[in-house]
Amino acid sequence: MENFRKVFFNITRKCCFGSDYTQNESIELEGKSSLDITSSQIPPQQVVQIPLVYLHLKIIVIESEKVPLGKTYNISPLGLNNTERTTYGDGCVYAGSLYQENNRIVNDIILPQNEKGVGKKHFMIQYKGEPKPLYLIKDLGDGMGTFVRISKPLTLQTNFIISFGDSHMIIIIDNSYPPKLTLRFIDGPKLDEKFKFSQNDSPIIIGRMNDCTIRFEDNSLSRYHCIITYKDHWIIQDGDGNKISTNGTWLFVEDFFEIHNEMVFKVGETTFRTETFTAKY
Q1: What angle do CA 231, 234, 235 make, to 5 degrees?
Q2: Domain spans of the chain, in order of start
Q3: So what's the pLDDT on residue 279?
């Protein structure tokens, strides 16, 4: 996990609304003890008008040692219902263990300070009304990451970090012909190992079985834990294509990721499930 923390710090953002890190960019953060998540990284408040019919979001705690199971947070286009952070709503929800900084409330959702892996300013959710109404989630770079469980085929991009069991791997895609894929493990039993593939190597199977392309002796992984295929793009899917894995394959949401209904994500030792539905104001 410490190795993931180091790489995590190296690639996390200069601005919380985007990442301009590329695989050619030199590492500049080594030696810094922590990220400086300041108010300059938080977008200025803006007044959001709520439509008569709008997309509502619930996030529900489904697994946690510190937060009551079933605890529900209701979110509208304005932000978290009954938040203390803003009076009129700015379309954003911030979550972390820090309640107040410089006499200003900084988080809408307060996470337990004594929960392992939780940051003071951990993640945010933002509403977007155009071109279609949706909610987006993004890690803020403080803590040990915000991870979304991959529940449907996901097109891979360079610098994606995929997590399963004790392992974290970073994706590097070379779009020259023939297209190539490199999987570099940045934590876990295969730390610092690289695996390179071309489209002819598809499918790439990761799991515990002897016939897996990348094999692990890790009981937290399923026999066929996840699979990567090439179909015009490199695509990852949890499980073997028919059955999902037991403990999941997870994407670290360094950049904004669209929230969908029944999505599962984890922060520290707490796991949430989402519900989205149309409501009337």
Answers
A1: 85
A2: 2-145+255-280, 151-248
A3: 86
Residues sharing a CB contact under 8 Å with residue 4, sequence separation 6 or more, in sequence order? 144, 145, 161, 168, 186, 187
The reported pLDDT for the residue numbered 2 is 56
Q: How far apart are CA 130 and CA 43, in angstroms?
A: 18
Torsion angles phi and psi, residue 64, rounded to 5: -170, 150
Average pLDDT, consecutive stretches of 10 residues, N- to C-terminus, the chain (281 residues): 57 36 33 37 54 90 96 96 91 96 95 95 95 96 96 96 96 92 96 96 97 95 97 95 95 97 97 94 72
SS3 59: strand
Inter-residue contact 236 to 213 (CB < 8 Å)? no
Closest of 242, 204, 205, 235 to residue 221, by C-alpha: 205
Q: Hey, which bits of 106-223 come out as E strands?
A: 109-110, 123-128, 134-139, 146-149, 154-155, 161-164, 167-174, 180-187, 194-198, 204-207, 214-215
Which own/partner pairs from 20-24 qualify as long-range (CB within 8 Å, at least 24 positions apart)? 21/159, 22/158, 22/159, 23/158, 23/159, 23/172
Cβ 4 vs Cβ 168: under 8 Å: yes
pLDDT at 7: 58
Would you state the pLDDT for residue 211?
96
Tokens of 19: 């990442």
* CATH architecture of the domain with residue range 151-248: Sandwich (2.60)
The closest of 233, 272, 276 to 70, measured between CA atoms, is 272
Class of domain 2-145+255-280: mainly beta
